[in-house]
TrEMBL record:
It comes from Frankia nepalensis. One of its GO terms (cellular component) is plasma membrane. CDD domains: ABC_Mj1267_LivG_branched (cd03219). This is ABC transporter ATP-binding protein. GO terms for biological process: D-alanine transmembrane transport; L-alanine transport; L-isoleucine import across plasma membrane; L-valine import across plasma membrane.
Length: 266
């Protein structure tokens, strides 16, 4: 059985949303990919985002993560307008993302892929500290490796830590991408079709990790075609259709919504 969401009472309330998208529109020439989309995700909340192919879900992820600027509208993280921030700065503020097509460093080991997500913090002391193997540098390296080990074990990847990431089947590769995304403790996690190619056991493990993250106060925005998985994981669900918000509500409300059933669920 896939792990499902605990009650929202189990997550401590925080002031203001971790993510707020306000009236975002994106045009590519004469094509409007998304139109006046607004949504918010609280800390410790899993918000599902569903809709037919071409509804604009990945475009919205690109805008939130900073890969694509919106034509109009704004993106706010923890109350701050980050609409014009570069993706690197957003990542360092705690925005993490997985992709429809896994984006791993194929020649690096599984463990090194995870360690790479924490390298930006540095070790302190610069080149001199590296050359003399300063205690502070050794301590930080030990902390990173300890964190990587914990994440690999939680994702069921400990036995694969020395395997080249590019040699893994798609299901395990997606779990590596998740491990890399959460190793540096995200504030906001964007998951784009994370269960595609996963076995039932891997999907269950993925669901367990999502719920563990939300219990730690991480905001999760989940795009997924597996409707059962989305409904089991999410507190609320937003439905996009033709680039606009068609409906928003609890999983039960969305599954009973006549327009959603006609446009997407069938």
């Amino acid at each position: 059985m896939v792990a499902t969401r605990p009650g929202r009472d189990a997550v401590a309330a925080t002031a203001g949303p971790a993510l707020e998208v306000r009236g975002v529109t994106k045009r590519f020439g004469g094509l409007t990919a998304i139109r006046e989309v607004s949504l918010r995700v609280e800390a410790g909340e899993v918000r599902g985002l569903i809709g037919p192919n071409g509804a604009g879900k990945t475009t919205l992820f690109d805008i939130i993560s900073g890969l694509t600027p919106p034509t109009s509208g704004t993106v706010h993280l923890d109350g701050s307008d980050v609409t014009r921030q570069m993706p690197e700065r957003r990542a360092r503020s705690g925005v993490r993302r997985t992709f429809q097509r896994t984006q791993l460093y194929g020649r690096l080991s599984v463990e090194d892929n995870v360690l790479a997500s924490m390298e930006w913090r540095g070790g302190g002391g610069g080149l001199v500290a590296d050359l003399v193997a300063a205690p502070s540098r050794r301590r930080r390296e030990a902390e990173r490796r300890e964190r990587a080990t914990a994440v690999l074990e939680a994702c069921g990847l400990a036995d694969l830590r020395h395997r080249p990431a590019g040699s893994l089947p798609i299901g395990q590769a997606r779990l590596v991408e998740l491990a890399r995304a959460i190793a540096d403790r995200p504030r906001l996690l964007l998951l784009d079709e994370p269960t595609s190619g996963l076995s039932a056991q891997e999907t269950e493990r993925f669901g367990e990790q999502i719920q563990r993250l939300r219990s730690d106060g991480v905001a999760v925005l989940l795009v997924e075609h597996d409707v059962g998985f989305v409904m089991g994981q999410s507190d609320r669900v937003v439905v996009l259709n033709l680039g606009a918000v068609l409906a928003e509500g609890t999983p039960d409300e969305i599954q009973a919504h006549p327009e959603v059933r006609a446009a997407y669920l069938g």
